[in-house]
Amino acid sequence: MTPTDRHRWQLRLVNASFVVLLLLAIGLLHWMSREYHLRIDLTRAASHSLSAASIAVVQRLKGPVRVSAYASERDDLRRVIREFIGRYQRHKADITLAFIDPDANPQQVREAGVQSDGELIIEHNSASERIVPSRLNEENLTNAFTRLGHREERWVIFLAGHGERSAERAANFDLSLWAQEMRKRGFRTRSLSLGDHPQLPRNTSVLVIAGPRARLLPGEVKEIERFLQQGGNLLWLHDPGPLHGLERLAERLGIEFLRGVIVDPRSAQITRRATAVIVARYGQHPAVQNFSEQTIFVDAAAIALAESDDSRPAGRAAADRWHRQVLFDTRAEAWAETGPTRGRVAFDKGRDTAGPLNLAVALTRDVQPAGDNAANNARRQQRVIIVGDGDFLANQYLANAGNLEMGLSLINWLSRDDAYVNIPVRTASDRVLTLSPTAWIGTFVVFLLVLPAGFITAGVLVWIKRRRR
Questions:
Q1: pLDDT tens digits, 432-451
Q2: Lowest CB count within 10 Å: 74, 105, 132, 419, which one?
């Protein structure tokens, strides 16, 4: 069949239309790429985008952030820095990045105190943080942004001298891993024995009493009461057993620790331990209302609340009136076991206390900070949290479920850093594939030589076979 002139013109018109439409589509795609930005990270660990924790931190920073990168133009160092900072710029537009060449600006490098090629100086308001190139990853950058967001110095003082869980020792019982995570986020921690220092420092943001195992002296208890009376914030981690001299403190706070250890049969089906309690639902208190992770508490004590001060007759000073609220409690089928917890454990009516049982409570009241002039300064909220367990923040259990997130959320709320309450903790882990020289050579040969040569050979053979037909 011989094509006619009409068919040729139709074919040419179709071809021309195709070319025009193709060029139009290319132009449209180019315009859309300039006007609209869509980025999809398909890597397994989302290694080319920020985690929810990092996004939350950077979005809470108020005001512009300036990043100065003292990086030479050698290698691809600037490209790596631009890629890391760009991930944050996509969520906070007023982060600016400026490169300074150390070779061309030696005086500026000396004045800035830069020690290595690729060092970053991150400035926000009047504060700054430094990141050296060997520590350039999402975790360190996010922690630096977190510290910049905290304008005030925050001291967390751990009571010591009575066998408490330590913020410095590394035993399973102690709290050093939790303290380390706090320091990464701008807190400053210190263990303090009232026997050596009879007074708590005035700049204490939060006092932590973590499971004393020896009796406190009357003078030490009096100093803790003075600290509370002057508006100090307290985190009390109590383990089942005696109060070791803190009975009067519990009475002043209007709480009571019930006898026994909490047993939760439903949690035991998962943990295989009768005294391990899994908490998945939380109250409406600001410290936990948006918390979504499960937390695990081992060998916990139940907390009973006295009648609310708000409901009592006004027979005491307003400064002594506490508002109490439950942070989280157990299921109804749990109970406080006063007998042995090994072997078969069953509820004994009349001796054990039936659930639901309070695991953690928060107390607040409005106070005038000590030494301030009441006429010139507004009252602020004093905050106290009591938890019937210290194991959930211990080194042995801190990595379980959301225990670390809970611990940081509580300490942020107690230090009145509400903007950082309930921020996720875990950033995306950096996954680097490290190959030996032999593996590199094998990969190069297979993917860049053997496979391309195979495809080309197969194509040539198919072409020759078709030509011979």
A1: 556 677 877 888 788 888 88
A2: 74
